[in-house]
Amino acid sequence: MNISFRNCLVTQVACLSLWPILAFAQSSDLSSNLANCKAGRDTCDRSRLSQSEVTEVALAVHRQNVVNCRHGYDSCDRWKLTEPETIALDVADHQRNVSDCDEGMLSCDRSKLTPMEASDMAAAQQQRNLAACKDGWNACDRSKLTPSETEEVNIARRQLNASDCAGGSEPCDQAQLTPVQTKETVSADLRRNAQNCANGWDQCDHSKLTSEQAKQAAYSEHQRNLSECRNGEDTCDYSNLTAAEAKSLADAEHKRNYAACLKGYGYCDPSRLTVDEAQGIHPKN
Fold this sequence. Notes:
mainly alpha; 9 helices
């Protein structure tokens, strides 16, 4: 009798201790089911919803349908919208179509435009084509230009061509330049070449330099070489240094070598030390 009572008591205690875990698991499962129902997932089990949750799910599903309709998704069910929501959707759809037409998008439905909107769309399309023709884009359709627009485009294209030629850019059509533009292009080309030579760039043509430009280019080249020699770069050409520059570099290298030998830090060549320097570093006993 005592054994049976103890077994029963142990069983009750075990059940009571597991109850919070089971309750938490059930609560978590119910919350997960509620989220699935709100999201319209197939895993939703509506039979497990409370009356308040059924209402909550219905509102969430309705709001999602409104959003789907506003974005034009196929999942939109217009029949489930209220009258104010349907009106707001019609207004939004119309405005979106007007915007698509103004921007020349394929989704534009011209049949839904009002006469005034269609007129504005045509004007916007004409301006886009005019801009494309001025900039030389492939989308340009010259057949749609008015005579005044054609002349406007021709002027813009000549100016753009002159700018390309002066900047050394492609495409440049020299034949379309006026005498003044040709002169400006030649001057710009000479200035650009002088700068290339002064900077040591490959696009330098020394034969096009004036006497003054050649001197400046030679000076810049000499200064670059001197800097490269001072920095110990492999592009240094010691043969182009003046006697004073070579001596200055040699003195600087001698000081560096002595400091390296003295401090024991850096490359040291003892053979290049003077007798006094060598004795100062390694005095005789």
